[in-house]
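Hey, can you fold this one?
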Amino acid sequence: MTTLFGRRVLLRPLEAADFPKWQEVRRRNRDWLTKWEPARMPGSPDVVEDAQAFGVRCSARQRERQLGTGHGFGIFVDGAFCGEINLNSIQRGPFQSCYVGYWIDEAMAGNGYTPEAFVVSARFAFEELHLHRVQAAIVPRNTASRRVVEKLKLRDEGTAERYLEINGVWEDHIRYAMTAEEWEARADDLIAEWIGY
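Sure. Predicted structure:
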């Protein structure tokens, strides 16, 4: 199991045993998070309320890791679960790219944990997975998520209209990206600022 370390955050894949703590955070943050997420498919179990569905989700993420198509991590601060960051839709061949998605407990927001987790996962993506491009797509009015990529000075590549279906609505998304060349030029500064070694 891949475990990644920052200055204050630890990133590791979630396991079925994490369900009670994950559920508590997700329940408490329902209003904070669900407006930015895809709606649950009709007839599918509610992963927040169904431990078995959460276990299936963890198994699916494990298969993604084995296939090399994704790496999902829980974000832990002082041993407490407080969010997730995921490298999704890893494509090889001429793309060598992935999407980054993340969320944090509202009670922990504003402390720089998410940008730190982003730098830790970007280092993994570029230096361990040898990807060429990391990108994030964010609903324009999601100022909290945009603040993360803006703090890290990711390049704004413009707005993709009606890009993803979010909570039942096709939403525009601002696309942000960083390439391996940009990482190589900026890695020392990003690591010094956000990770500290």
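The chain has one domain: 4-194. Let me know if you want another pass with a different chain boundary.
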